[in-house]
Amino acid sequence: MMPGAAIWTLIAMLTMATVIIKGTGPFLLGDHDLPDRLRPAVMLLPTTLMAALITVALMHRSDGAIGWNWAQCVGLLVAAVALFCRAPLILSLGFAVVATATVRALM
Amino acid sequence: VIAQPMMGTIAPIVMSCVVFAGSAQFAAFGVLTAGGSIVAAAVAGALTNLRFLVAGFAVAPSLKGGRIRRALEGQAVLDPSFALAAREDGSFDRGVLLWSTGVQYVSWIGGTVAGVALAGVQPDPTTYGLDVIMPAFFMTLLVGEVRTHRGVGAIAAVCSAAIAAVCTLVLAPGAPVAVAACASLIGLIRPKDT
Question: Which ipTM value was assigned to this complex?
């Protein structure tokens, strides 16, 4: 267990940082539009964000250490194939879970 | 479940209520469990959230009200909400953003309470492969985005993944995602074609 004061300090610091980070953009821009020139980049932001989050997740093993998480890689591959074949979201996620669990059981 | 041994019962729940940024919370814990200081943990958490700075600028024009209200509404930006609310023309659906975040807020806190309550009782979620749900869900959003943006979307995704992979090996936790999101800038390269 960590000392109580340390925990609450951490929580306070994280909360402030998060609120400031999320609020800065809307606060500064107000009701102004983004410059048109930047629009193509903003449109791609969700794409790059998802790709990066997936990659980082796959590169962390279950114990948190850095290294390929092979079971998750297989599960994700299965989900990708299912999605590519236009399977519904829930079904694709289900396939991914089963595939991941299967790989773990075999390894 | 992860936090309970280190933080007790109440603190993780409060943390989920007020910080409400899963990746930042996990990043902070990663540093703590590795023996890092409180400040290092807070910095890791803040770095993890840096991507929301850019996301905030992106959604700002789609929000309503004065500066303060917009800054408050901007707190609703989360990875899944951000991707779900994205429209094809680069604007964002404010209703989808707020609603999807509301649903996630309730389930995130519910999940934290359940996790703390079950710590020690429940087996590790990785036993059942449930940990793949988050990346797999991101994958569903990614596939949708790439279908919308076609070639440039696929290129941006590959670039971002490659940057994230390299950065994961050399940078502090959290920073890789923020750096990799810069791959969006390739959208600026040939504006006349699009």
Answer: 0.80
Tokens of B193: 């074609």
Q: What is the C-alpha separation between A62 and B118, in angstroms, rounded?
A: 19
Supply the pLDDT for residue A78.
92
Residues ≥6 apart with Cβ < 8 Å to B14: A11
What's the pTM? 0.72
CB-CB: which of B6, B129, B160 is closest to A101? B129
Which run of H or of E encompasses B151? helix B133-170
**Using CB atoms and an 8 Å cut-off, which of residues 137-156 of chain B contact chain A?**
137-143, 145-146, 149, 152-153, 156
Contact B27, B173 (CB under 8 A): yes
| B9 CA to centre of own chain | 24
- Planar angle of CA B75, B81, B85, nearest 5 degrees: 110
